[in-house]
UniProtKB/TrEMBL annotation:
PANTHER family: ARABINOSE-BINDING PROTEIN-RELATED, BLR3389 PROTEIN
InterPro entries: Bact_solute-bd_prot1 (IPR050490), SBP (IPR006059)
Gene3D superfamilies linked to this entry: Periplasmic binding protein-like II
Transmembrane annotation, as ranges: none
Pfam families: SBP_bac_8
Name by which UniProt lists this protein: Sugar ABC transporter substrate-binding protein
Taxonomic lineage from the root: Bacteria, Bacillati, Actinomycetota, Actinomycetes, Micrococcales
Domain of life: Bacteria
Length: 434
């Protein structure tokens, strides 16, 4: 067997972004096909020692983790094509129906099951037979509705409300536990001359986190899961209550979020222009090169209703899947078996301290304070949700919910018509459930 090596095939993602005026233009023009056609060349592999990998880990830190990890595999060769994260997500359906790579990065939950139900990904149950150290919760999250295991977890992280302890200490602010306490804190922060809550939604997914957390706190986990499955009316009082709570937060959120990326919102908090940010723990990546990388902490999204509590955590799981008809199935499964090991996952942890391992036997001696707190938070959770665009149908999330949330942020007084439109489109997308 030859030593492994890795070759990154250039993908002109910047050119793709410049050629498409907006995310909606990509969808409207059907450009997902052309965007991910760049991956098709990588997928056309006939070398028995080579596995092709498509990756949406396009930001510098996670991209490095993928490259380092794949280059450490001793079982063969790897050709990897890294495509911009959002472009990959928007074009994934066309990609999988075309000439996809053997292995590709994806997400657990509904998004994995969606492609399993349509026969676009492979059964990995035989790979799982060689995996130990993964808890039952990860196995459940990796399963299709029929019980087949179709996903290999790589890492995960919680969503919470992040803040700089130094700023809170300077002003004498305390972490809120209830929604009312949070509103009062927002007033104090405003009085101190800061914008209380950093906020962005340029890419159309960021606001989904706020929606999820409000729904989980206002209505509880069971309703949230049912709503995501298309089994609840978007015109119900429960959904209207979500947006009523959100309207109370709007005066404290950063203005004009549709023109701001999550990185720019995070930088505003780093620069102490804003005080808090509801986001995933990947925000820690923005602190890596700051003057004080440890000046970051989080608190659980506050309780809204004591009867519901605040012990449900949103913790998306990232990982790997295999195409339905891989060009090199044997080597692809060998690679996936390696990717599930503690040694392979350690490359991600070394490169990116904003995530935690899905394995119960992972060495946590080098975990940061933030990582250890994340483990504790998730361990004590009564339930774990993935994320709106992972917990529901991808087409519903991207073409209906994403623009609807952006419409709400632009026109909060139009919520009734917005919800009416969502419900109408939901019935065409979820015909069996409606």
């Amino acid at each position: 067997m030859t030593d492994s090596w890795i070759h990154e095939i250039p993908a002109s993602v910047r050119a793709i972004r410049e050629a498409t005026a907006s995310r909606r233009a990509v969808l409207g023009a059907g450009a997902g096909v052309s965007a991910l056609a760049l991956l098709a060349g990588c997928g056309a592999n006939t070398d028995p020692d080579t596995v092709t990998v498509g990756s949406h880990q396009s930001d510098a830190i996670p991209k490095k983790a993928v490259l380092d990890m794949l280059s450490s595999w001793k079982g063969g060769k790897v050709d990897i094509n890294t495509v911009d994260h959002e472009t990959f997500k928007e074009g994934i359906n066309n990609y999988l129906q075309g000439n996809p790579d053997d292995v590709f990065t994806w997400f657990a939950g509904y998004r994995a099951r969606f492609f399993a139900e349509r026969g676009l990904v492979s059964d990995l149950s035989d790979v799982w037979a060689n995996i130990d150290g993964m808890p039952e919760s990860m196995k459940v999250a990796s399963s299709a509705d029929d019980g087949r295991l179709v996903f290999i977890p790589w890492n995960y992280y919680p969503w919470a409300v992040f803040y700089k302890p130094s700023v809170f200490d300077k002003h004498g602010w305390s972490v809120p536990e209830t929604f009312d306490e949070w509103l009062a804190l927002n007033e104090d922060i405003k009085a101190a001359g800061l914008t209380p809550i950093a906020f962005s939604d340029k890419d159309g997914w960021e606001a989904m986190g706020t929606f999820d957390m409000l729904d989980l706190r206002v209505n509880g986990y069971d309703f949230h899961v049912s709503l995501m499955a298309g089994k609840e009316s978007w015109e119900s009082q429960e959904v209207k209550n979500i947006f009523a709570a959100w309207r109370e937060l709007l005066p404290y959120q950063q203005a004009d979020p549709l023109g701001r990326t999550w990185q720019e919102a995070a930088q505003s908090m780093l620069k102490e222009e804003t005080a808090m940010y509801t986001i995933g723990m990947f925000i820690d990546q923005q602190w890596a090169d700051s003057e004080d990388p440890d000046d970051l902490d989080f608190f659980t999204f506050p309780e809204f209703d004591p009867a519901i509590g605040a012990d449900v955590v949103e913790a998306p799981i990232d990982g790997w899947m295999m195409a339905a008809k891989p060009h090199n199935e044997k080597k692809a499964k060998e690679l996936l078996t390696y990717l599930a090991t503690a040694d392979a996952i350690q490359y991600k942890l070394d490169a990116d301290p904003s995530v935690i391992s899905p394995r119960t036997d992972q060495d946590q001696s080098n975990y940061s304070k933030l990582q250890k707190k994340a483990v504790e938070l998730i361990t004590n959770a009564s339930a774990i949700s993935q994320f709106l665009d992972r917990d529901t149908r991808p087409d519903f999330a991207s073409t209906v919910i994403s623009p609807s949330l952006q419409n709400f942020l632009k026109n909060p007084d139009s919520i009734d018509s917005i919800l009416r439109d969502i419900e109408k489109q939901k019935k065409s997308i979820f015909p069996a459930e409606s």
